[in-house]
Amino acid sequence: MKKRTGVKVATAAFLTLIALTGSGTASAKTTYKAVSASKNQLVDIVLKPRSQSAMGSYAYQVVTPSSKNYHKYLTSKQVSSKYGQTTAKVNALKKYLKKYHLKAGVYSGNMVMVVKGSTKNVEKAFKVKTV
Fold it and tell me: pTM for the full model?
C-alpha cells in the first residue's frame, strides 16, 4: 500500500467533509447565492491521527473505571506526541497552502489546522468549486 503524504490526507479529508456536509436533504426550493471570489474564508482541516485505533482505545480507557488509565487525561503536548501529525507533515501542508496564498496555523495537538484566505485561493488549493 502506498504511503500517503500529509497534503494528500488533508485534501482527502477535506473533500470527504465537503461530500458529507453537502449530502444533506435540501428542499427543492433551496436557493444558493454565489460566493465572492475575494471573500475571506476560514477553514478548519482535521488531520488524521497517526494511530487512530490507539487513540480510540485510550479514549475508552480514560472513561472505563476498571482501566489503569481511568481519568488519566493527556495534555495537548502528550496528545501531539502520541497521536498528532508530525511537525514535518504539518510544515509540508503549510508550505503547500502557502503556494496558494493561504495562511495556516495549527492548534496544539497537531490534529487541527486553521486556514485563512480568499475563496478563490481556497478553491484552487483544494481543487473544489463552491456554490
Answer: 0.66
